[in-house]
Amino acid sequence: xxxxxxxxxxxxxxxxxxxxxxxxxxxxxxxxxxxxxxxxxxxxxxxxxxxxxxxxxxxxxxxxxxxxxxxxxxxxxxxxxxxxxxxxxxxxxxxxxxxxxxxxxxxxxxxxxxxxxxxxxxxxxxxxxxxxxxxxxxxxxxxxxxxxxxxxxxxxxxxxxxxxxxxxxxxxxxxxxxxxxxxxxxxxxxxxxxxxxxxxxxxxxxxxxxxxxxxxxxxxxxxxxxxxxxxxxxxxxxxxxxxxxxxxxxxxxxxxxxxxxxxxxxxxxxxxxxxxxxxxxxxxxxxxxxxxxxxxxxxxxxxxxxx
Length: 307
Prior knowledge:
alpha+beta, Structural Genomics Hypothetical 15.5 Kd Protein In mrcA-pckA Intergenic Region, Chain A, 15 strands
C-alpha cells in the first residue's frame, strides 16, 4: 500500500424501505464482513442523508447512504518459527507438505501465522524478490487443505514455475472424501467457476465464470461417502469444492459448500501428488505425501462402521 493512499467512498441510494442500515450495507458491499461494516458505522464512517446513524436504523426509500472505507493498514512481514515439513529442497525451490489450518500468505488484517511467515524464518532471502506479501509463492492451497505446495527461492525459479502453471504443465493430485455414492466410478466435471453473484466471498458454477475441469476416480465407497483420487486440469479458486457441491456430492466437512461432519474439523481435501519440471535440470519430477493422521482416522472409522 502506498502511504498516500486515500480512503474509498461509496454512495448508495436506497430503493426500498425497511432494511436495517448494517444489513443493507452487507448486501451492497459483499466483500466487507458484517462486523467490519458495524465498526465503520460506529466510528462515524457511514452517514445517511449526511448524518451518522446507528447500525439498526431502518432505511427509507430515497435515503442516501455514504460509506467511507479507510485504506488498509500496511502489512509488515515478520518471520515466525512455525513448523512445517519439507519434502524436497534445492537452491531454486522448496516443496512443502502444508499442514491444515495454515493460510498460505498474509493479507490486510491477517499479517501473521501464515506459511510465508514460516518460510521467511527458514529462508530469509525470500524477502528480496517477488510480491511483497507473497514472496516465492506461485500457487496456493486453501487454509484448511493440507498437502504439497511448491515455493520458488529466487526470481528466475519463480518465473520458471509460473510459466509451467500458466501452460497447465503442472500435474496436481488430491485425495478427497465426498458425501454420497458417486457414480460413475470415473468421470470429469466440466463447468465454469466464478464469483457467486449472491455472495461474493464464495465461488460457484456460473456461466460467466472461467473454464474449469476436474477429473476423478473412485478409490472406495465407505459408509455413505465416496473416497476419490482427483486431478484438476485448471486451478480455479475452490474448484474441487465447488464442482463436487454442484453435482450434489460436497466434500465431507466443507462448511462453506456443504455441511459439517462429526468426525472432521475441516474439509477432507489433501494435495498428495505433484508433478513438475525443476529449474535445476529441466526434467519432470514427481512428489507425494501421505494422508495426514486426522484424515486417516476418519477413513479408518468409516471403514469400521461400514462392516
